[in-house]
Design a protein that fits this description.
By secondary structure, this protein is of the alpha/beta class. It contains 11 helices and 11 strands. The protein folds into 2 domains: 101 residues, Rossmann fold (3-Layer(aba) Sandwich), CATH 3.40.50.720; 156 residues, 3-Layer(aba) Sandwich (Rossmann fold). It has a 6-stranded parallel beta sheet, with helices on both faces. The longest helix is centred in the middle third of the chain and has 16 residues. It starts with 13 loop residues before the first strand and ends with a strand. The N terminus is likely disordered.
Length: 264
């Protein structure tokens, strides 16, 4: 898109990279335009700089508000170097004639592997055991873990990351079920996943991992009502977005002994 359009007045196209990305990514951008990297900008500093640029690249640290978008009189493209776009005011970009793009497969495998790492750390109580040992205690009996083999893994959201998590769960010998209104039973069957409604998943799963975007519909998706329906000893993993799991409700469920552990 940037390579096809000239900047107003025929000047060089300019891209502002406002969050840290890999040097290889910057080099690719430099093949199409002049690139400036300026990270750690405040909202006001970004608003002052953006009028000189045709495109803006961010990750999750920078919030691209309507005020920033409106100030970008040359701004045509806002790119998120990551999966979501929840830190970008997409309707505002549309109103001002810009487009918003992301890289939905950029960190798929990394996010899935991180999820599995959290799952195993919870099962084996690795963080608590490590802290105890560093404090000079040997409490072997206190930190006996549980096997994940043949346990039920509930994957909420079977998008790219959720599907990779499901594959890895099956590789660990887990029974995998998933909930996603956009996935057909045929697609789930190809993944080796039992497709169920969310209330069913909540009641049956030993481990619940969420992989949905944060939207008006998914905010607080797991809250008091859902925790009350879960197995005692369930473990919760959220490597998606804060806000999908109601943290105050999660704390109450932990204190009540419903949830054995949570990670993200």
């Amino acid at each position: 898109m940037i390579a096809e359009r000239d900047a107003p007045g025929g000047g060089a196209r300019r891209i502002l990279v406002a969050d840290k990305i890999a040097a290889e990514g910057v080099a690719r951008l430099e093949q199409a335009a002049q690139v400036d990297v300026a990270t750690g900008l405040s909202a006001e500093q970004l608003r002052e700089k953006i009028p000189d640029y045709d495109a803006l690249v961010v990750r999750s640290e920078t919030r691209v508000t309507e005020a920033i978008i409106a100030a970008g009189r040359r701004l045509k493209v806002i790119g998120r170097a990551g999966v979501g776009v929840d830190n970008i005011d997409v309707p505002a970009a549309t109103r001002h004639g810009g487009i918003v793009v992301n890289s939905p497969e950029g960190n798929t495998v990394a996010a899935a592997e991180h999820t599995v790492a959290m799952l195993l750390a919870l099962a084996r109580k690795i963080p608590d055991a490590t802290a105890s040992l560093r404090a000079g205690r040997w409490e072997r009996g206190r930190f006996v873990g549980v096997e994940v083999y043949n346990k039920v893994l509930g994957v909420v959201g079977l998008g790219k990351i959720g599907r990779e998590v499901a594959r890895r769960g099956r590789g660990l010998g887990m029974q995998v079920m998933g909930s996603d209104v956009f996935v057909s039973p045929e697609q789930a069957k190809q993944l080796g996943v039992e497709l169920v409604e969310l209330p069913d998943l909540i009641r049956r799963a030993d481990y619940i991992t969420v992989h949905t975007p944060l939207t008006r519909d998914t905010r607080g998706l797991l809250s008091d009502a859902q925790f009350a329906q879960m197995k005692r000893g369930v473990r919760i993993i959220n490597c998606a977005r804060g806000g999908i799991v109601d943290e105050a409700a999660l704390q109450r469920a932990l204190e009540a002994g419903i949830v054995a552990g949570a990670a993200g």
